[in-house]
Specification:
single chain; 41% helix; 2 helices; alpha+beta; 92 residues
Length: 92
């Protein structure tokens, strides 16, 4: 964070976690993170200076391919060719 109150630690499972310090200057940007942390831990109120987990770094992310453009285009080529031929025949 801009204030320099964010840092990385390694947790018990060996994951690297981004932590932030609960200070007044960063109340608004941390509001969502604090809410989720309190709910997960069952804590009513966080003290000033308490550490809040922000994110867990993961070694590798693989995203699934969502749209197979080549297959979609290949499936529509016959209809496209027929439409082009029809337009050419109407122009003549």
């Amino acid at each position: 964070m801009r204030g320099g109150n964010a840092y990385f630690i390694k947790n018990a499972k060996g994951n690297i976690v981004l932590m932030a310090e609960n200070i007044k200057e960063h109340d608004r940007p941390l509001a969502g993170f604090k809410r989720r942390y309190r709910k997960a831990e069952g804590i009513k109120r966080l003290k000033r200076g308490a550490d809040i987990p922000i994110a867990v770094l993961v070694p590798k992310v693989v995203l699934k391919k969502r749209i197979d453009v080549e297959r979609l285009v290949a499936g529509r080529i016959p209809r496209l060719a027929a439409a082009v031929e029809k337009q050419i025949s109407t122009v003549d």
